[in-house]
Amino acid sequence: MNARSALKILGAFTVAALALVPLVAQGPAARSFTPVTDAMLRNPSPNDWLHWRRTLDGWGYSPLNHINRDNVGQLQLVWSWAMRPGSNQTTPLVHDGVMYLVNPGSSVQALDAAAGDLIWEYEREYPGGQTGADAGDRPMRSIAIWDDNIYVTTADAHIVALDARTGKVAWDTTVADNRKGYTYTSGPIVVNGQIVAGMTGCSRYKDDICFISAYDGRTGKELWRTSTIARPGEPGGDTWGGAGQAVGAGRPGHRRRRALHERDARAQSGHRQDCVVLPAHSR
Predict the structure, then answer these.
(1) What are phi and psi of 212, to 5 degrees?
(2) DSSP state of 106
(3) How far apart are CA 279 and CA 247, in angstroms?
(4) What's the pLDDT score for residue 216?
(5) Is the model's pLDDT at 212 over the cut of 90?
């Protein structure tokens, strides 16, 4: 790994490490791991950061008071970690003194939060031999933790459960066909042991729509799936006047509305009214 500083991304969390864990690194034999329960996720310990925004309601603030207005100016850099190059908006998770960090390409690293040492690393492999290290253009914003696992969504539309102690794959579930443009850029949330994630990738035309789905946290089995645009025959499915989900999902629908809006604007300004005809696959 290239030795470059990632303070732009991790600077705030280097500070958080000073307050959240004692500055004494633990060896592998001394390290313990407490399985994360639903109760812990609903009311996280101040010493942990178990969600992207710490709490399920996205409060985003730490209740710790070790760092305050009087001593904040005394903070100093303890360690820095070189993240993978590429687009990224991640927030690390912290539990039992371990920082879990997702990198561009859906690679995951576990670090000793006190010392900054690597504990384990999961390298995502993509079709064609490409790895997460090669996929810097595949950003990821967050991961999730529950029970013994870390959960990461991937750029090729999978959800993967990793053993939080070792990084080994517990299960890997294919959610959608990445060849159709489906992908993940945000991580899941965990509700009552269900791994819930929203699919993206509807900017490319396809005879299908995006959705939110949930999976059993222990097995990866799909539990339910709900569309983000009503399908034909469902309540609200006639919104597009018979055009169906082809223009109702994502960018095609946006462009259809824009064309109709421009037609109406021309009519109101006294210009000749044009007939706008868009095929169902218009982009």
Answers:
(1) -115, 135
(2) S
(3) 9
(4) 98
(5) yes
